[in-house]
Automatic annotation (TrEMBL):
This is Uncharacterized protein. Residues 34-151 form the WxL Interacting Protein peptidoglycan binding domain. Residues 158-292 form the WxL Interacting Protein host binding domain. Residues 1-28 form the signal peptide. The chain crosses the membrane at residues 303-323. Keywords: Membrane, Signal, Transmembrane, Transmembrane helix. InterPro entries: WxLIP_HBD, WxLIP_PGBD.
Amino acid sequence: MNMKKKLGIIIMVMLLASLFNQNQTVYANEGADYSVSPIFSEHQTKTVDSFFDIRWEPKQKDIIGLKITNNEATEQSYSIELNKARTNINGIIDYSNNEPEAETAKYKITEIVKLPQKIKVPANSTKSIEGSVFFGSKDFNGIIMGGLHISKIDSSKNSASVSNTVSYNIPIVLRGNVDKRPNPEINLETIKVAKFSSDKYALNILLNNKNVNFLKEVKFKATVTNSAGDVIESQTNQIDITPETKFIYPIKLEGKYKPGEYQVKLQVNHSKKNRWTFDDKFTISKKDVKDIKAVTQNDNKNWLVYIILGMIVVAGIGLIIFLRKRHK
């Protein structure tokens, strides 16, 4: 058999394998006790095989599902949460936040998609569950985003609770049957100084993506100035913003601040047509200054400890090398 025929057979096998494995994407960590894979509906986007991507069909009902494989020697139970997708404070799309959807939301994924919240799977077995997607009666021109958060339930305790081990997130995207999306709208809600992490404070700007638009690769440029107009802080970011979501954009406060009034200017650019500029004043109190200094000093102390430990390690290695050479 010549090389061309061999190559042709290999390509044909690969094509056939891809056709038969379109719905076999598996979410699994190496050595994990269980794995999860989505079961797609007839309205699944054909080119997407790693998460639910479904086109809206007015007055229709769609069937989706999950396949869970238990790799343990005993029966296990698993929790299945359906959550709205939210851009979190770190600029990452989060599918595990189980806070209720806002009452003002026009489209609630928890009312559109229905799935069992719990499943038991026998030892060393695979079990499937079925859920449904109820489309509204009217055309839809937006994007709805959510996700399934699957966790093992720890039954070793007196009261069963979700285990802190491996969990999986499978996104769900519902795309409108009308391709022309609504005009995006972002509003500023509140501004406040708050703790961002153990070693940082931030100016938290609460923004609201009001419409059913998924805004990808949105560019942020923020500048903080004092009452004299001096620039104290500046930062740039690029993040994705989920539809109908209130989210915090944090400006990390790393400069030297004194109590008083400051100005923040935030530019948000999605495209040439979609640009927003927010310009507002805020106050930093004496307590804020004290808190910011406290965490900054703690951070500096931590770095000093790391430097000293590094010097001790280097000195120790140098001493060992010296003694070995001397012994020779």
